[in-house]
TrEMBL record:
Keyword Nucleotide-binding: yes
Domain Helicase ATP-binding stretches: 137-323
GO molecular function: ATP binding; hydrolase activity; nucleic acid binding; RNA helicase activity
The protein, known as: RNA helicase
PANTHER family per record: ATP-DEPENDENT RNA HELICASE DBP3
Domain Helicase C-terminal, residue spans: 350-500
Region (Disordered), start-end ranges: 19-56
Keywords linked to the UniProt accession: ATP-binding, Helicase, Hydrolase, Nucleotide-binding
Compositional bias segments (type: Basic and acidic residues): 47-56
Species the sequence originates in: Panagrolaimus superbus
Annotated EC: 3.6.4.13
Record flagged with keyword Hydrolase: yes
Domain of life: Eukaryota
InterPro entries: DEAD/DEAH_box_helicase_dom, Helicase_ATP-bd, Helicase_C-like, P-loop_NTPase, RNA-helicase_DEAD-box_CS
Length: 541
């Protein structure tokens, strides 16, 4: 099976003309390279700052959230895997707090509002709080600011959404210290996330837990028709989930009023405090009338907190903020990490070979494990999906060049098992939670260890996950990956070991945490692995 990249590109452009490939998902972009992966492309109504957007989002686009009942059903189906999920969560420690600590083992311990408790226990079948939830929720209910770090897939979303809904319910019913009366376009809590898909997902989760509680939830992000978006917010936004660009636009324009704001949450906080987003975040919190840190509760959550963002984080938090952490910027231990040597143009063939072998083994591509394939460029995500589809592995792609309607459609098809394989750029690297996603393939190795941790963290969330990373052997990030594995006492696979040996022995295990490359500005496409940029900086965690 020889690969001719020119041929693939030619076919790709024909596919564009003919209106699609893989699934019946509609038109494909011609994968023009741009500077932005789309994840922070929120600079106005049209996301891509790199000029022409292929497959433009229709001007009247209104995103469709999943139905709350479907979300409850999805949780219930996964409940078998939940039974002992908490046993395998990393332990977390509590820092910057001297008093007695409550670690909630049961939901009942903190007297949540009855409807909320029903939504958690009966309807979502979340039997027990996960460790990060048990540690953070009591502090949040006690009005502390929080910086919370726990591995990918450890349940951080509910750790901030649940207490916010509880506080909002109490405040609305007059049980809280201060009465909160819902007002048009005036949120009680704002949750910020770095990508539109993540904002949609957190919105859905918040809507799910808020079902029947009287707490309204709204979302705001780029490409959503601005008038309709405004309409959604006016219809009720006690909790507003948003990307930084659209949020800034709405707050500065006066469409959103922040005078009653009690909570500010940054999900994927280290990403949002990284340079490209931090300016937006700082602008938002400095808007006249935005409650200062002494007059709001600020919650920062991520699986990774590299040193370089700590200062920015501390600027947002009150001095008594509690730091709850697993002290690891490392991959989730539920993921078995594997490596395959493959380089240059052979990677697409290798990818096809692996997936075809799996399809044959399980009796068809429709029975395969759900697999997320990461690549480093938008063009390659389209090419990989096309190439797989042409080899009888139905696949679709998601990247910043695709219109928002197609991005969301691709994710929906992947979530609903319509396609087994999704080829993605780092627009999907963080936060995205797809049930029964068991395999992540890095067809191109990311340029920094933090992105690696988040990418492979799309699997192994409530059940065992597997990652396969294609390496050529010389990528600088491999040393860091190996160091993380040593630190977690994981055996280094032979392939990785011999690649490192050839490179002069690999990295020594760090004493505590590990040296990290600065997180890539993953709005920018990084070069493909063959020409991967050296990490720009390292630091001790
Ligand atoms: N208490 C619980 N019991 C069972 N399952 C849970 C519980 N809390 C969360 N989950 C499930 O765990 C999975 C991961 O949750 P979530 O997406 O919040 O992880 P995360 O920590 O935010 O990960 P990431 O760092 O990748 O964003 C979800 O599928 C969620 O439904
Ligand atoms: Mg998350």
């Amino acid at each position: 099976m020889a690969l001719d990249l020119e041929l693939v590109e030619e076919v790709l452009s024909v596919a564009v003309e003919q209106g699609g490939f893989g699934s019946d998902s509609g038109r494909r972009g011609n994968a023009t390279e741009g500077n932005f992966g789309g994840d922070n492309a929120e600079q106005g109504n049209h996301g891509n700052r790199d000029g022409e957007e292929q497959e433009r989002t229709p001007m009247n686009y209104v995103p469709q959230a999943r139905n709350v009942d479907d979300l409850f059903s999805e949780d219930q189906r996964a409940a078998n895997d939940y039974a002992d999920v908490v046993e395998h969560d990393d332990d977390v420690v509590i820092e910057n707090f001297d008093g007695p600590v409550v670690r909630m083992q049961k939901w009942e311990e903190v007297e949540l509002e009855p409807q909320l408790l029903t939504n958690i226990k009966e309807r979502s079948k979340y039997g027990r709080p996960r460790k990060i939830q048990g540690a953070t929720i009591p502090f949040i209910l006690d009005k502390f600011d929080i910086k919370a770090q726990a591995e990918t897939g450890s349940g951080k979303t509910a750790a901030f959404v649940v207490p916010i809904i509880d506080c909002c319910m109490r405040a609305k019913s007059g049980k809280g210290e201060e009465l909160f009366e819902s007002e048009m376009a005036t949120p009680y809590a704002i949750i910020i996330g770095p990508t539109r898909e993540l904002v949609m997902q957190v919105f859905e989760q918040a809507e799910k837990f808020a079902a029947g509680t009287g707490v309204s939830v709204a979302k705001a992000y780029g490409q959503y028709n601005i008038g309709r978006n405004h309409h959604e917010i006016r219809a009720g936004c006690d909790i507003l989930v948003a990307t930084p660009g659209r949020l800034k636009h709405f707050i500065k324009g006066g469409e959103i009023r922040v005078n009653k704001l009690k909570f500010l949450v940054l999900d994927e906080a280290d990403r949002l405090l990284d340079d490209s987003f931090s300016l937006d975040i700082m602008e938002i919190v400095n808007v006249t009338g935005f409650p200062d840190k002494n007059n709001r509760q600020t919650l920062l959550f991520s699986a990774t907190f590299p040193n370089q963002v700590m200062h920015a984080a501390d600027q947002l938090l009150r001095p008594k903020a509690v730091f709850i952490t697993n002290h690891r910027n490392n991959p989730n231990k539920r993921i078995k990490q594997d490596f395959v040597v493959s380089g240059g143009q052979g990677k697409l063939d290798k990818l096809t070979e692996i997936l075809t072998a799996e399809a044959e083994k399980v009796g068809g591509s429709d029975k395969m494990r759900r697999t997320l394939v990461f690549v480093n460029t938008k063009r390659m995500s389209d090419m990989a999906a096309l190439y797989l589809s042409q080899h009888d592995i139905p696949a679709t792609s998601i990247n910043g060049d695709r219109g928002q309607h197609l991005r969301e459609q691709a994710l929906a098809e992947f979530r609903s098992h319509k396609v087994a394989v999704l080829c993605a750029t780092d627009v999907c690297a963080r936060g995205i939670d797809v049930k029964e996603l068991d395999h992540v393939i890095n067809m191109e190795v990311p340029s920094d260890a933090i992105t690696y941790v988040h990418r492979i963290g799309r699997c192994g969330r409530i059940a065992q996950g597997y990652s396969t990373t294609f390496i050529e052997g010389h990528e600088p990030v491999l040393n860091e990956i190996a160091a993380m594995m040593r630190e977690s006492s994981e055996e280094i696979p032979e392939v990785l070991k011999s690649a490192l040996d050839q490179n002069g022995g690999g990295a020594a295990a760090p004493a505590f945490g590990q040296s990290f490359a600065a997180p890539s500005n993953f709005a920018n496409n990084v070069p493909s692995s063959g020409e991967a940029a050296a990490p720009s900086a390292t630091e001790d965690w």
